[in-house]
Structures are given as structure tokens and as C-alpha cells.
């Protein structure tokens, strides 16, 4: 039997690489698109392919060559702070690249189901945006919805909350773990500056998220939007306390006055998890076990 | 006294060139941005400048060199039918170009007020899009609103309905007039194919629209959206009848079965003209006089 073939964009990224590993372990043939090959990942059933998603011909060639049964679009930029400085780059990479991907699928007439990864930080377009990153993710989801509606492509949308887990990430939990690992080695670590410890977020293990992505690709309803999270909101203070239970050094954080609000809602607008739960999905990694794995990753990083 | 300086994007286009003429006649120094200079427009107080709005550096250089008191952003693609074939191009030209323009203003710290020209064909983003052109204009307006909200640029938005008037245009009224002028010269003119004569539209003379644009730039409220139209909806049948009263040849049209709905709402969602009327604006060109001027343009075109 021929393996089902999945194309994963952003395969060099945090979520993308976790997704590659997950789908490989579950018997898929995985083609990972990366902007630039960094080293040979010599794994059975894995191919890595260079592709610049902001170049429409590069994307077209990739889809035409691969003809995937499934497409998981994880590529994109996701640093809220950076998006304030380089909003045009975020529009190009998060919006235009998605347009190129879906246009390539349309032109090649590829039939495989497509899952576009949006974000829980999208804003309601009838209101006002709170930050550029969320704006571009809102656009990306509207593009996905539009290509499904107007051009009848088999697209679904996942909107995960804050993804955490081992591996290179610019997220809050990774940042703290990296500092702890340095402090444990007696390295001088600049403390992490935190604006507001009462900020609440829903932290979900990336490995739980990619399991949800497979379920959606296999059993999801075309055109549907799937918010994904644990449903449990934690303050940043709670994250610090949890890490403190995993180490003997003081967690190196420094609380500063709240000068620059990045525009992240503080636990407002809780997600409706009905759709993903209807597919039988529930998160599997307890929060402390995710943090422990992240810490292990940085302790071993050397 | 130094003239106020206005930068007009899309100066080679239908609306853009009418705007250039209007602002020149009203004592402004006008800098017209065009993709490619076609011929020398040797007019006092007029400068033409090549600029590729899809190239962020080209736009940045233009804003830095011109430092306009006002910016009128008319550039963009507006052919609904073409947008079904080349949606990626419409995203690039209508959305990304607007991002580059507003980013250039932000980086140069140019203080001049900005009027972004949206469209009455935008869709409500909480619903479903009906065609790609409208989608990209919805994105463009969301970008304008966002750069005003997030980066505090002095932006306003105009949403004109179908603009008509003398000059090269791909609009319905121009198409008919061109065929009439050919028929009057005994040239064999393929009749215009019309899907549905009962379709209703609000036709506004472009010269009335650019007068509204000046009013908004001078007296409008930052962040406000200004729908612009006559408030009077006409069927395409009414347009044909009106043209018939201006010529002795039969208006060359052919009614075909409605095969391909372009996704233009048939007079649904009438515009709220309160904001523009509050500035004291009312349309000045009667419909028949606009049609007559369009016909004269094509009769003289040779």
C-alpha cells in the first residue's frame, strides 16, 4: 500500500517540524517545505524541498511536483513584537504566501485537503485590530475562507492558542526555560523582562496540536473553523511558579512596569472548543510535563 | 504663497487622472505616481513620477522625495471579472501596495492626511465574500483602518460606488458608449453582452467623486469611512434607454442568459451617505450629462 502523502509548509519551524515527526510516526510520506535547507534530515519517508512561498512560481512548482494528498500550512511569522516593527513583512509572509499556496493548488487542480493554521490571536474584523500579527492572521483566515467559498477548494482552518513544547520557539515558556537552563549551568543569564504577570493565556502542547491537525484533515468538515486549546487559562505568574517546581535555581525573571502593551488580549474572548471536541480530540500532555520537556530540551542543548 | 502639495497614486488611471486635473484646477501642486510614464504631460504645477507600489523601496523613495501635504491613493486594479482569473495579482496590487504606501508614510514620518479609495463592492468580513475584487478591497480598507488605529496615521477612507465619466475606463457605461460611437461611424461593432438588464447600480460621475475626495481631505474626520454615491439606483436597462435618447443608431447590446454571476450585489445593501452629505457634498452632474460626456469622449477618440 502506498503511503498517504502530506505536504507540510514551514517544516523548519517549531510547529512544522513537530508536525513532520508526528505524521512520519503515523505512516505518512512527508514532504517538508523549507525556505532554505539547513542540514540533511535523513529519515525514511521524509523529503525536504526548498520553496519560497512568497514566490508564486516556486510554490506552483512544489505543488505540481509533489501532488500531495494533504497539505498542512504551518509556515508564517508569529512574533507579535516583531510584527509592530515589520508589518509589511508579516502581510507578505502570512497573507500573500497563503494566497500563492492556494492559487498553486487551484492551478494544478490538486485535490488534497488543506488545513490552514490560523491563530487564536485573530481579531474580529468587524471591530478594530489590536496588533499587526493578529491582523495578518485574520487576513490569512479570510483568504482561506474565500478560496473555499469562491473557488471551492477543500480548505479547513485551525486556530490554535499558544503552542508550547520542546524545540526552538520564541514563545514565553521556551524563553523562561532557556534562562533557567543557563542559570543552572552557572551562566550569567539576563532575567526575562515581564510586563504583567496577571496576563492569562491558554498554553497547549504542540504535540497535542499536531494530533488535532491530523484529525481535522481526516475527519473535519470542509470550510469549518476549528479553534484548538486546552480551555484552561493560566497567568504568567502560574507559569513561573510551575517552572520553580522543576528547578533548584530561582527562575530568572524581572517584572517591569507595563510600558508597551503588545496588544494581546488578557484571556478575553475564550475559545469555543466545540468543533474540535466533536472530533474526539482532547489534550494529552499535562502542563507540567510540557514545561519539563521544554526544560530538558534546553538543558541538553549544550 | 506656496501651493499645497498633493500626491496622487494611480495618476495614469481613470480616477487618478481626473483627480490630477481637478486638484490642478483648484490650485494644488500635484505629483502623480504612475507605474510607467507614457508621454510627457507638460502642465504647470504637475509632476509625474514613476513608482512601483508593489516595491516597498520605490514607494519609500517617492514619499521621502515628495513629502506631500495630502495623499490620494487611487491606484489599484478594479476589474471584477479579471479578479476571478488573477486573484493573487489583485491581492498584491490592492492590498500589499497599500501596506507599502502606509509603511513609507510611517517610516518617513510624513504628516500629510491620507485618503484611501475603497469600494462600494467591499463585503462585510463577518460574512462570506462574493468575488475576489471585493475581498481585496475589504482587505485594503482593513489595512487603512489598522494603520490609523495601530500606528496613528491620519487616514480616511472613501468608498465610492460605480464611477463613470469621460476617459478610458473598463466600466459598463464606457463600454456601451464606445460601441455606440463605432456604430455611428458605420464600423462593425460586436454588441455588448449583458447578463441581466435588471441589475441595479448607483452610477456616480467621477468628477463629482474627486470633488468629494478634496472635501474629505480638507474637512473629513481622521479614521472615518465615507461611502459616496448618488443614492439613486438604476437598472442596466435604464442605462441603455438613456443612451438611446442620445443617438440615432440602435444601442448595440445583446442580452444573454445569465451564465456567470460575477458576484456583484444587485442593489443590495444601499449605502449610507450621511457622512459625505454632512460635509456639504452633493453630486453635480445629472446622469444624462455624464453619459453625454462619455459618448463625446468616444466620438472624438477617432
TrEMBL record, chains A, B:
Annotated InterPro entries: Epimerase_deHydtase (IPR001509), NAD(P)-bd_dom_sf (IPR036291)
Location of the NAD-dependent epimerase/dehydratase domain: 6-229
Gene3D superfamilies: NAD(P)-binding Rossmann-like Domain, UDP-galactose 4-epimerase, domain 1
UniProt superkingdom: Bacteria
Protein name: NAD-dependent epimerase/dehydratase domain-containing protein
Any single Pfam family the record assigns to this protein: Epimerase
Protein family membership: Belongs to the NAD(P)-dependent epimerase/dehydratase family.
Amino acid at each position: 500500500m502506498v503511503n498517504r502523502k502530506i505536504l507540510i509548509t514551514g517544516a523548519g519551524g517549531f510547529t512544522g517540524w513537530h508536525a513532520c515527526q508526528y505524521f512520519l510516526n503515523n505512516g505518512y510520506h512527508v514532504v517538508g517545505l523549507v525556505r532554505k535547507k539547513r542540514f540533511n534530515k535523513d529519515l525514511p519517508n521524509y523529503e525536504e524541498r526548498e520553496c519560497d512561498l512568497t514566490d508564486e512560481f516556486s510554490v506552483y512548482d512544489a505543488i505540481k511536483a509533489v501532488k500531495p494528498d494533504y497539505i498542512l500550512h504551518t509556515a508564517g511569522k508569529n512574533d507579535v513584537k516583531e510584527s509592530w516593527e515589520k508589518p509589511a513583512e508579516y502581510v507578505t509572509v502570512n497573507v500573500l504566501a497563503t494566497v500563492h499556496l492556494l492559487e498553486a493548488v487551484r492551478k494544478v487542480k490538486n485535490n488534497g485537503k488543506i488545513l490552514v493554521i490560523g491563530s487564536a490571536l485573530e481579531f474580529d474584523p468587524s471591530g478594530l485590530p489590536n496588533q499587526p500579527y493578529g491582523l495578518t492572521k485574520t487576513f490569512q483566515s479570510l483568504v482561506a475562507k474565500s478560496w473555499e467559498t469562491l473557488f471551492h477548494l477543500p480548505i479547513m482552518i485551525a486556530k490554535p492558542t499558544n503552542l508550547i513544547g520542546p524545540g526552538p520557539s520564541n514563545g514565553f515558556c521556551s524563553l523562561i526555560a532557556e534562562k533557567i537552563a543557563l542559570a543552572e549551568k552557572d551562566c550569567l543569564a539576563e532575567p526575562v523582562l515581564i510586563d504583567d504577570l496577571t496576563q492569562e493565556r491558554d498554553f497547549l502542547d504542540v504535540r497535542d496540536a499536531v494530533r488535532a491537525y491530523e484529525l481535522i484533515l481526516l475527519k473535519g468538515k470542509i470550510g469549518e473553523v476549528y479553534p484548538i486549546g486546552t480551555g484552561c487559562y493560566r497567568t504568567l505568574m502560574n507559569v513561573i511558579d510551575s517552572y520553580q517546581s522543576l528547578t533548584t535555581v530561582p527562575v530568572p525573571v524581572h517584572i517591569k512596569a507595563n510600558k508597551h502593551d503588545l496588544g494581546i488580549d488578557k484571556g478575553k474572548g475564550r475559545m469555543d472548543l466545540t468543533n474540535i471536541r466533536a472530533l474526539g480530540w482532547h489534550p494529552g500532555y499535562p502542563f507540567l510535563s510540557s514545561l519539563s520537556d521544554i526544560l530538558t530540551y534546553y538543558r541538553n542543548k549544550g
